[in-house]
Amino acid sequence: MIRTTDIGLTLSGPPPHLPLQDWPVLVLLDVVLLQVSLFPLAVPHDVSSTDPPLMEKYFTQTMDHFNFNSMGNATFRQRYLITVYGGMLSVYMRLKYPQRKWPARWLLAPPILSTAGLGDPRQFFRDVTADFQNISPDCRDAVRGAFGQLKELADKQDYSLIQEKFALCEAPSSAQDVHQLNGLLRNAFTLMAMLDYPYSTHFMGNLPANPVQACTEIDLCFESNNMTDMFPPMTFTEADRESYCTKRWGVVPRPNWLRVQFWGDALSTASNIIFSNGDLDPWANGGVRKSLSSSLVAINISKGAHHLDLRGSNDADPGSVIKARKTESQLIEEWVKMERDRLKRKTKF
């Protein structure tokens, strides 16, 4: 059975987009699925849940690890931390707390390399562009041309026409306003690239974010340059990040914090992790694309968008994701059986 409870974490059965019947092995193995968000338990008593800015300050990987490491282990026998943020936490916990004798775990890991500031800062928007280019180079060129037209209007300060064309509530009034509009438009194309499933979806709407964490822990300094991608030149350097974080949140980023705290790309000491990536997902190349050992397994899904394998089955699914789900299910079953056999041998002595 799937246990559900609430110990201060956001716990659930299968994620909303993951029907139970698609993962029968989880029913048989008494698995707990922890959804993406882990809500902090240990926060000052005067911090109200109705005060988002304060709550964001206490929503950290360190806090989540403390909560789960100190309280979660006594609650569930088996636990599988699945999907994006939960997967990242899980990988780091496997490295940070190797002394904890937790049962077998299955982790679907996100872009743990790029979030630690490892890799090429141009990779992400280059891969967003590749999604459109692979459909048609004309599509890429049309997007690049549209941004060029927006720049021409901005250079002429024809802000009223920009407002009209983009149906903005207010007309931009400065170059900074246009820069922000460029960023919003770039994000829109990013979401289209991430979520180009073979069917329609709406699950990315109305999701909360934690910008403080991007200042204190997550190191994402991606940039576009209009050469390797179709977007206007928009840099975001470590200096830009420090300036924004200091002004907006009153914190100074810690460069290389993830690499120092959680060993960066030194993953060979971990185990029971599935690095699952779809080749249509621009986040994919910020993660692990090659298997590192027999229990650090990379699964690359052809024609797969952002965590397509964690979504429910659909008649339009490509054969690659059907195969990936089967492989993942088999690995889970194998790892849990190994752990149960180990526990049986231990009780005999």
Topology as a string of helices (H) and strands (E): EHEHHEHEHHHHHHHEEH
According to CATH, what is the class of the largest domain?
Answer: Alpha Beta
Q: List how many beta strands DSSP finds.
A: 6
CATH topology of the largest domain: Rossmann fold
Describe the protein in words.
This protein is mainly α and 349 residues long. It has two domains: 198 residues, 3-Layer(aba) Sandwich (Rossmann fold); 127 residues, Serine carboxypeptidase S28, SKS domain (Four Helix Bundle (Hemerythrin (Met), subunit A), Up-down Bundle). It is built from twelve helices and six strands. The N terminus is likely disordered.
Strands, helices and their partners?
Layout: E1 11-12, H1 24-28, E2 33-34, H2 52-57, H3 61-71, E3 80-81, H4 84-96, E4 107-108, H5 123-135, H6 137-155, H7 159-166, H8 175-194, H9 211-216, H10 238-249, H11 257-262, E5 273-278, E6 296-301, H12 319-347
Parallel strand pairs: 2-3, 4-5, 5-6
Antiparallel strand pairs: 1-2
Helix pairs in contact: 5-6, 5-8
Family: Belongs to the peptidase S28 family.
Pfam family, one: Peptidase_S28
InterPro entries: AB_hydrolase_fold (IPR029058), Peptidase_S28 (IPR008758)
